[in-house]
Write a structure and sequence with these properties.
Length: about 100
């Protein structure tokens, strides 16, 4: 699903919202998640899953084009863990 499709679904399910308002709703939700992750905190949406960050230590890598060794700096990367209810719902829908 694309972001625009999500906006369209919100607009369709909530006809009292304009498409621009639905776009703002999506933008606010996503920006809130991003800002929370930037602070190093966790975002948990019950029944859906949890967003967090994981630390990746600095390491030696290789340039795929030349094969030369390069240093890859440490970083924090986003991580998503699906909730139990989401997993169960997807599993049930795939059995049909």
């Amino acid at each position: 699903m694309l972001r625009s499709e999500l906006v369209d679904n919100i607009h369709k399910d909530n006809p009292y919202l304009t498409r621009d308002e639905a776009e703002r709703v999506v933008a606010v939700i996503l920006q809130s998640i991003i800002q929370t992750l930037e602070k190093g905190a966790r975002v948990e949406l019950r029944g859906f899953g949890a967003f967090s960050t994981r630390h990746r230590a600095a390491r030696k890598g290789r340039n795929p084009r030349t094969g030369e060794p390069v240093m890859v700096r440490e970083k924090h990367v986003p991580f998503f863990r699906a909730g139990k209810e989401l997993k169960a719902q997807i599993d049930a829908s795939r059995k049909h």
